[in-house]
Amino acid sequence: MNHTMLSNTVVKELTETASAMVAKGKGILAADESDPTIKKRFDSIGVDSTPYNRRDYRELLFTTPDLEKYISGVILFDETLRQSGKNGVPLAEVLSQKGIIPGIKVDKGLTNIPGTREEKVTQGLDNLGDRLEEYKSLGARFAKWRAVIKIGNHQPSRLCLDINAHTLARYAAVCQQAGLVPIVEPEILINGPHDIATSRTITEWTLSKVFSELSRHRVLIEGMILKPSMVTSGDEHTDQADIATVAETTVKAFKRTVPAALPGIAFLSGGQSSELATQHLNAMNKIDGLPWELSFSFGRALQEKALQAWKGKPENAKDAQDVLFHRAQCNGAARFGEYTRHMENQLK
Ligand code: 13P
C-alpha cells in the first residue's frame, strides 16, 4: 500500500540516491546555514556576511581537493544553489562534477506554536511542490527540513510533537513526489539540565511519532534519510554520560523506533565539539548488528575549525581546506569504527 503514487522509476531513483548519500566511509556536509546563522559564524571571525563573502567561503569548502573521498553530499542554502564560483560554474555543478550530490534546505525556519510555552513548528509547506521543481532544475537531488524539539519542564508537549511529526511527514511526501530524497530532521536540542535517560525517553517518543506519521503519509522509507540528534546528557547536566554510554543509549533508542528499511541515519552535531561528535559516531559504529548505516551530516563539527583557519583571508584558503579535509577524513574513519585520537595529530 505504501507510496502508491510513485512510479517505479522514481522509486528506483530515490532509493539509489538515498543509499549513495550514506555510502560507506562517507557523510554529508551541512553548509545550509540561513542568513542569520551564517552571520553569527562570520561574526566569530570578524568577517562581513555579504553574498560575495558567503560565496567565497562556500566555494572554498566545496573545492577542497579530494573532499569526495569522505563527503557524499552537501546541503546548500537557497542563495548558494543560485551562485556560481569565480570561474562561472554554478556551485551545485562544482559539487556534482566531483561526484558529490547537491541538496537543498527547503524549510523556512521556525515559528511559535500558539497555546504552548514558545515551542516551535517549522514553516515552509506552502508552495513547497513548486519550489522543489525549481530546486530540482537547479541541480538539487535531495532536500532537508529541520524540526526543533526542546526538552524542558513538561516539554516537549504532545501538541509540539504531533504537529512537528505531521509537518515532517507532509514535507517528506511532497519531496518524494517531486523526486527528491527527503532528509527528515527532528532535532532534539542538547540545551538544558536533563540527564541522558530523559533524552532517551524524548528521543523514543519523538521518533515513534515521526515514523508513524511517515507511514501514514506513505513515505517510501527506503528513499529517505533520518537526521537526528545523538542521545546525550543535556549540556547543563552536571554528570555528562561518557562516550560508550552515549553510543549504546543512542543505538538502543533507534533500534526501538526506527525501521530497518531505512538506508541510513546521518547525525547532526548539535553543538558538540568536533572531536566529541567524531568519537560518538565512531563508538556507535563499533557496535555489531546495526540495521542501518550510521553516518554524519555535520555542520559545525565539520566547519568550525576550517572557519577559524580561514578568517576571511584568501591566503588562508589552503589551510582551511586542509582542516576541512582532515575533519572529513576523521569522520570517514568513524563510519567504520576505525577513528583513533592519534588521527587528530595527522593534519597535513
Ligand atoms: P550542526 O551539525 O551544526 O548541528 O548542523 C547540522 C544541521 O544541518 C542543523 O540543521
Please provide a written account of the structure.
- The chain is α/β, with parallel strands linked by helices.
- The chain has a single domain, classed as TIM Barrel, CATH 3.20.20.
- The chain has twelve helices and ten strands.
- The strands form two sheets. It has an eight-stranded parallel beta sheet with strand order 8-7-6-3-2-1-10-9. A two-stranded antiparallel ribbon has the order 4-5.
- The longest helix has 21 residues.
- It is globular and about 50 Å long.
- The site of 1,3-dihydroxyacetonephosphate has 10 residues, from helix 11.
Secondary-structure map:
Blueprint: H1 8-21, E1 27-31, H2 35-43, H3 51-62, E2 71-76, H4 78-81, H5 91-97, E3 101-105, E4 110-112, E5 120-122, H6 128-137, E6 142-149, H7 158-177, E7 181-188, H8 196-216, E8 225-226, H9 243-257, E9 264-267, H10 274-285, E10 293-298, H11 300-310, H12 317-334
Parallel strand pairs: 1-2, 1-10, 2-3, 3-6, 6-7, 7-8, 9-10
Antiparallel strand pairs: 4-5
Helix pairs in contact: 7-8, 8-9, 9-10, 10-11, 10-12, 11-12
Key terms:
348 residues; alpha/beta; TIM Barrel; two-stranded antiparallel sheet; 10 strands; binds 1,3-dihydroxyacetonephosphate
Count of helical stretches: 12
CATH arch. level architecture = Alpha-Beta Barrel
Number of domains: 1
- The 3D shape can be described as globular
CATH topology: TIM Barrel
